[in-house]
Amino acid sequence: MSAVIAYVVAHVSHAVLNYALARRTLQFDFGPDNRRLLLASFALLVGLTVWTPRDILGVALALASLTLWAALVVRPDEWRTVWQAAQRMISPQS
Questions:
Q1: Cα 35–37–39 angle (5° rounding)?
Q2: Tell me, what's the pLDDT at 94?
């Protein structure tokens, strides 16, 4: 368990350092979309860290959590873009 905690701490500190660098060099700022993405991702990460799925019900709940995360952070126009790209990959026009 301590390895998992160290792994999470490393990722969080890496994200904070990347944000500080991007803010300083690129004048990056958190808008509402970025805040929602960060908070939803952090909640999903903490939830799956605290409660690791160990059976099929747990895996189903984890997949439901991931689906909820995607519904919260991906905008409808982004879903359309992905869908159109997938359609082009599946049936390319000559």
A1: 65
A2: 54
Q: How many domains does the chain have?
A: 2
Per-residue pLDDT band for 81 (boundaries 50, 70, 90) equals very high
Asked whether residue 35 falls in the same domain as residue 80, the answer is: yes
Half-sphere CA count of 80, side-chain side, radius 13 A? 3
Indicate if 38 and 49 belong to the same structural domain.
yes
Q: Which domain holds residue 75?
A: 31-94
Backbone φ and ψ of 71, nearest 5°: -65, -35
Tell me, what's the pLDDT at 22? 87
The stretches of the chain forming alpha helices (DSSP H) are 2-26, 32-50, 56-73, 76-90
Q: How many residues does the chain have?
A: 94
pTM over 0.85: no
